[in-house]
Amino acid sequence: GARMVAKGASKSRAKLSQQKSPAEFFAENKTIAGFDTPAKSLYTSVRELIENSLDAAERIGVLPEVSVTLEEISLERFQKLHGVEATERVDTGLYKDMETKKEKLKRQKEEEKQRKQAQKEAQKKAQKTGENVEDILRRQEAGRKAAATRSKRVFYKLTCSDNGSGMPSDDIPNMLGRVLSSTKYNSVQQTRGKFGLGAKMVLIWSQMRVAQPMEVKSSVAGQDFVSFYRFNIDLHKNAPIVREHRKVKNSSGWRGTEISVVIEGNFASYRSKLLRYLKLIAIITPYATFDFRFVAEDDKNSMHHLFTRRTDKMPPPPREAKHHPSDVDLELLKKKIAGSTNKKLSKFLSGDFSNITSTMANRMVTELKLDIAPRQMNDSQLLKLHNFMQQVRFADPDGKDLSPAGEYNLRLGVMKELNPDMVATHQGTAYALEGHAFIVEAAVSIGGKDPAIEANQLNVFRFANRIPLLFEQGNDVITRTANQLKWNKYKIGLEQGIGVFVSIVSTKIPFKGTSKEYIGENDKISAAIKRSLEQCAQQLRTKLAKKEEAKQQGEKKKNLELYIPDVSRAVHRVLSTLKDFDQTKKRCIRDSQEELLDGIKKRKVLVTHFTEALKKYVDKKYEEDGLQYQMQNKNKSRVEDIFLASLASEQKLMPPLTNGVCTIQFLK
User: Fold this and answer.
1) CA-CA distance, 516 to 488, in Å (whole number)?
2) Is 267 buried (19+), middle (13-18) or exposed (0-12) by CB count in 10 A?
3) How far apart are the C-alpha atoms of 124 and 130, rounded to whole Å?
4) Three-point CA angle 160, 165, 167, nearest 5°
5) How far is CA 168 from CA 51, 176, 220, 225, in A?
6) How far is 150 from 264, CA to CA, in rounded Å?
7) pLDDT of 516-570, one tens digit each?
8) Please, is 461 exposed, middle or buried when counting C-beta atoms within 10 Å of its C-beta (0-12, 13-18, 19+)?
9) CA torsion, points 161, 167, 173, 177, in degrees to nearest 10?
10) Between the CA of residue 323 and those of 352, 367, 397, 439, 540, what are the distances in Å?
11) CA–CA dist 96, 93 (Å, integer)
C-alpha cells in the first residue's frame, strides 16, 4: 500500500513538473504578440512579413522591393480545396448563423433605427466638413458590412516576397520553425521586431486555425538553386516538421525570399488599418517599394496599391552595441564572465561593456581590490562586482550605433505620401534612458488634401524603430506631448490640417503593456519629443510668416493693378490737353516729352500704351521688393529642400549637370 501511495505521489509530481516549450507558450499566449482576433491576426501577419523583408534587404544594403498578395478564400472554397465535404443541415437550430422570425424582425427594426440615426449624423458632419452626405453614408455602410462579416470564417493565402539577403538552404526550417532560436536575443541592437518572432508566429497562428504548412522559397547571392520547403511546427517539441524539400534551378540568378501561408482572418474589419499601415511604412521608408494586392472572391472588391520608391538614399543599418554597464543584471554578468577569455578583470570590463575605458576599468579594479581573472570569481565576488557597477557613474551611450530614418527621408516620405502645403523636420541629439540610447526625430506638416489629415484636430502618427504604431494612441507619450504643445504660439491653427510625425529609435523601446503597442509616459522621452516638435513648429512659423509676406505683396500688386486702367486714361487725358502747346511753353518741356506729346497728337500713343507701361513697372517693382525680402532673410532660416523623382522605379539617366546650386539629370 505504501508503495502504491509513493508511486501515485511520484506520478503527481511528474505531472506538476511538466514544462511548456516556447512554441507552446506563445501559442497559448498569442495575444501578447498581436494575434488575438482573426482580423487583427491577419493585420499582424502582413506586418510581420513586411518588416522581415525590409530587414533582409537593408541587411545587405539593397533598396527594398516588397510584394504582398492577399488572396481571399471563402469557407466553402477552403473546404473544397482541402477535401472537407459540406454536410447537409438537418437541425438548423444548432447553427448560430440562423435566426428565428422574431430575431429577424427585431434585427430589421434595429437596422431601420440605426439607418435614421446615421442619416442625421451624416448631415451634421457634412455641414461641418463640407463633404457629400452620400459619401459619408457610403463609408458607414461599408463599415456595417465589414462588421457583419466578423462572424463568418474567411481564409486568406498570404504571400510576401522580397529582394533581400535570402536564407541559407539548410537553415530555413529552424529560422522559421523554431521559436526563440536566434543569435540576437542577447545582443544590444535597434531592431524592428518586438519579440523576435516574425514569421514564426504567423506559422503558429496558421497551424492553430487551418493546420496548413508554410511554403518558403529562398536563394542567397551566387546560389545556383532556389530552395523550396513546406513545413509545420511541432509545438510540443518546438521544432520544425519538414513535409517537403527540394531544390529548383535558379536560372535567373534570383536572390530573396518568398513566404506563402494560409491563415484565418477578416480583411473587411482591418482594411483601413492595413492600408494606413502601408501608407505609414511608406512614409518612414521612402527608399522602398511596396506592392500590395488584395484578390477578393468577388473581383469587383479586389484592389491594388503601389507605393513607389522616391529616393535611393537609405539610412545605414543599425550596428550591434555593447551592453551599457548600468543596464546589466546579475545573470547577464554571469553569462558574460562564463564566456570571457580575458585573464584580467580590467580587460574584461573595458572590452565587454560600452563607456568603460581602460583607464576607468583600472580605477574600478583598484577600488574593488579585486584584480583576478573573471572566470576565477566566486559567487560573492560576482555579487560584489554587480553591486559596485550599479553605484558607479558611467557616461551615457552616444547613440552612434542607432539608425534613425533621417530628416531627408522623413521629409521626403511625408511629401511623397501626403503632399502637404508645407513641412518641417528635425532630428534631435541622442539621449539615454536606463542605459539605452534613443533618438527622436519629428516632422510637422500643414495642409494638403490627403484623407489621412483631418482638419480641426491634431493628426498624430507614431513610429518606433521605424515601424508604425497604430493602437493605443491616446495612451502614448507621443500623442500626449503633441497635444500639450501650444501650437497657437507658433501661429499654427488646427483648422489648417496639422500632421505630427514622431519617430523614436533605440536599442530598447520602453513599451508599456504586453501588447507593446504604445510608449508610456516618461519625462526624458517627453522632453526630447517636445524639443523636436518645437524646432519643427519654429521652422513653420518662419515659413508661414514668409507666406503671409508674399500674400501681402501679392495683394499690394493686385491693388495697384486695379488702378492701372483709370490712371492710364487720366494721364492720357492730361497729356492730350498739352498736345497743342504753344512756343512760349516749349522751354518747360524736354525733347523726350515733346516726342511723347507729338505721339499723342498723331495718335501713335494710346491709352493701351500707358496701361502696358504701368503693368511692366508694377511687375518690376514687385520682383525687386520680393528679391530684396529674400536677400534680407536668406540667413535667418535654413534653405528649403526640393525633391524631384520619376514615377518609374528604373530609369536610364544622362550624366549629372552640377552648378553649385543644384544637380540635374535628364532621362535618356
Assistant:
1) 33
2) buried
3) 10
4) 80
5) 19, 12, 7, 11
6) 11
7) 788 989 999 999 999 999 999 999 998 888 887 777 777 777 888 888 888 888 8
8) buried
9) -60
10) 7, 22, 10, 18, 39
11) 8
Contact 453, 345 (CB under 8 A): no
Phi, psi at 492, each rounded to 5°: -110, 120
pLDDT band of residue 296 (cuts 50, 70, 90) is very high
pLDDT tens-digit map of 390-412: 899 988 888 899 999 999 999 99
Per DSSP, the residues of 66-134 read EEEEEEEEEHHHHHHHTT-PPPPPS-GGG-TT---HHHHHHHHHHHHHHHHHHHHHHHHHHHHH---HH
Residues 283, 501 contacting (CB under 8 angstroms): yes
Rounded Cα–Cα distance for residues 397 and 73 (Å): 50
211: CB partners within 8 A, 6+ apart: 232
Q: Is 250 helix (H, G, I), strand (E, B) or coil?
A: coil
CB 330 within 8 A of CB 337: no
23 by Cβ neighbours in 10 Å (0-12 / 13-18 / 19+) ranks as buried
Q: Are 260 and 159 in contact (CB under 8 A)?
A: yes
pLDDT in tens, 376-391: 999 999 999 999 998 9
Cα–Cα distance between 305 and 292 in angstroms, integer? 5
Q: Is the pLDDT of residue 637 over 50?
A: no
**Which burial class, exposed, middle or buried, applies to 195 when counting CB atoms under 10 A from its CB (0-12, 13-18, 19+)?**
middle
- Taking the CA atoms of residue 462, residue 467, residue 471 and residue 473 in that order, the dihedral angle to the nearest 10 degrees is -10
For helices 345-352 and 330-338, give the axis angle rounded to 10 degrees: 110
What is the β-pairing status of strands 498-506 and 458-464?
Answer: parallel
Question: Pairing relation of β-strands 458-464 and 467-469?
Answer: antiparallel
Q: Which residues pair with 158 in a beta bridge?
A: 70, 261
> Which cell numbers in the block locate residue 658?
552640377
pLDDT of residue 649: 46
How far apart CA 594 and CA 575 sit, in angstroms, is 11
